[in-house]
Amino acid sequence: MDNQAKEHKSNGMHPADFIAGLFIGGLAGAVTMLLIAPQSGKETRQSIKQGAIELRNQTTASMEGAVVQVRTKANQVEADVKDKAMDLKHQGQDMLVTQLDRVSAAAAAGKKAVQGTHN
After folding, report:
1. CA-CA distance, 52 to 62, in Å (whole number)?
2. pTM score, two decimals?
3. Most CB atoms closer than 10 Å: which of 13, 65, 114, 117?
4. Cα dihedral 49, 50, 54, 60 sign
């Protein structure tokens, strides 16, 4: 299971679940309001319209919040990947320098050994 899936699991709520719950809750509230409303039809329709507008605004705000969270997390992941790539690059460069030093030392030792046998 990747880290993102673990994180979603640990949070316990997905944005889609939240929005579905918000919608179902708003719908249940509207139905309840219709059933117990001691108002005229016109007043009830106006109340439903106002409730729908508020629900839309809440849903929009929730979605905007979710988008901000996703963008923030994506930027964080991107920065982490860049940092890790830089670390790996530096490790690779260090390993290359170490290997070149070993090859140079071996070449120098070989050259010295060959010169020593010719003298």
Report:
1. 15
2. 0.47
3. 65
4. positive
